[in-house]
Amino acid sequence: QVQLVESGGGLVQAGGSLRLSCVVSGSRVSLNVMGWYRQAPGKQRELVATITSTWNRNYADSVKGRFTISRDNAKNTVYLQMSSLKPEDTGVYYCNFQPNIVPWGQGTQVTVSS
After folding, report:
1. Are strands 10-13 and 18-25 parallel, antiparallel or unpaired?
2. Which of 36, 43, 94, 98 has the lowest CB atom count within 10 Å?
3. Where do the H-state alpha helices sit in the chain?
């Protein structure tokens, strides 16, 4: 059974940085396309970054140049380094596979104050 556990969120001022972590059990992150998603209040969940098994990375236009997705195969963990944060980055962040979604983890809350 695949499990996803996100952490690293918090309250940060605009312009600040956070690093999110997603520990995956039950499947290898190195063999899959992994993604970070976020859900802002009152909005649908959206995909913000993906990383493939060959380290091809893609980003939503709204985060390009500010967010970096990476992974540590030994720890079976996916990261999202977020910098130059904006209030519109506020939301609950989740990781999951792409495109074959598995049950969501609890997510981690990111709040960016202006």
Report:
1. unpaired
2. 43
3. none
Cα–Cα dist 94/92, whole Å: 7
- 22, amino acid identity: C
pLDDT per residue as tens digits for the range 69-96: 999 999 999 999 999 999 999 999 999 9
Q: What Å distances lie between residue 59 and 11, 24, 46, 72, 75, CA to CA?
A: 23, 21, 11, 19, 23
- Single-letter amino acid code for the residue at 100: N
How many residues does this entry show for the chain?
114
pLDDT of residue 28: 93
Which residues 6+ apart lie within 8 Å of 37 measured at CB? 45, 46, 47, 48, 93, 94, 95, 96
